[in-house]
Structure formats: C-alpha cells, structure tokens
Amino acid sequence: MSLRDPILGGGTRVDGEDGAVMVIALAFLTVVGLLAVVVLSMAWTGSNTLAVYRQDRVLRYNAEAALQTTVLRLATNPLMGTVDRPDLTTDTRDCPMDFALQQDPGGTAPIPPTFTSGSFLKVTCAPTSAANATGPWGGSGASGYYDTVSQTQSPRDVTITITCTSPPSTKAKDPVTCGSAGTSQVIAKARVRFEIDYSLTDKQRWAVVPKVVTWDVRR
Questions:
Q1: Domain total for the chain?
Q2: 199 falls within a domain
Q3: Potential cystine with 172: which of 48, 55, 79, 184 (Cβ 3.0-4.6 Å)?
Q4: Per-residue confidence (pLDDT) for residue 107, from 0 to 100
C-alpha cells in the first residue's frame, strides 16, 4: 500500500503520518522555547545575585577598614569615647566620621560601579552601655571615668557603629548610594576596651591600649 493514494482531480490524500510529524515538530519547538525561557531566567537571576554579592563584598571590606581606622583614632585620642567630664565638650568625646567607600575601578575592562561616586559610611562611637556602673569597667564608674582625687583616667569601653544610609533602590543591579539621605542600615559594630598604659606620665590620658571585646561585620 502506497503512502499516498490517488484521488480524483490528480491530487493526493495526506496520510496520517504527516500529521504526526507536525505534532512532533510543534512539541519540539515548545520544549526548546521553554528551555530558552528557563536559561534566560537563570541568567537574569545570576546577574542580580552577582550584583548583590559585589555590594556585600564592598561593604564588608570598607566596614572593616572603617572599624580599624576608628580604633586607631581612639587609641591616639584618649579623650574620645569617654563619659561626661566637666573639662570636655561633646565634640571632644565623640568620634563622628564619614568614611569614603573604596571600590574596584575595573582596570582595563571597567566593571560597572557597585556604589555611586561620593558614597560613604557613617562612623559613630560612644561609651558602651552597661547594666550597672560596675559592669565592664569595674567600680570606678564608666568609660574613661576621670577621678578628680587621684587625677587618673579609668579604662575606656567604647562601642563603634558603622552605618550605610541609602534611599530605596528600584533595581538590584543599580549602583547603591551610601550617604546622608534615606534609611540607615547597620553594617558593622565593634566593642573595644582601652586599657591603661602605665608607661605614660599623663595619667588623665593613659587609657590607650586597645583590646577588642566584640567585632561584628554584617549586613
């Protein structure tokens, strides 16, 4: 029996196998189309995931640098991070700083910036809160307490906080701005105790030996 039987008028009758081939072809195209959609979706998701990873890496690197810089500032400025003293102003005791964000320039093949130009992390520090005056500092009072009788400074216990203040982002891959406007997010926090350096002659400013109590870099 032939695949095609002659019919009146000189035409041919289409065999059932032709219809089956068409169905198979349509099914194949459908599968290929679905696979293409899946591949494109995975590529888009991977691209967004990479952008988030790069943001996290840049923030962590800069937060670590900001913490280390602040510890050095506190070590060389023994009146920072202390409790109220009649001979000190608030500006003397506080340590606000805007830490400029550093990121990979990209070399010969520029990488799209993760953060906008001019972005910075905000650094603040303050005496560590304690449940009672004898908590982390002993019975002498609080961070950097100044004893007017002996005219000596007690150890300092300082909490450093690093934040990124940014407006809401519409797309995951858009450069993020860390600045002054928007919502603040804590990027890192550390608690550092500054012990007494008994080799110093100025007993009012001798709590300068850093000892890290906690060090937490996160998003």
A1: 1
A2: yes
A3: 48
A4: 45
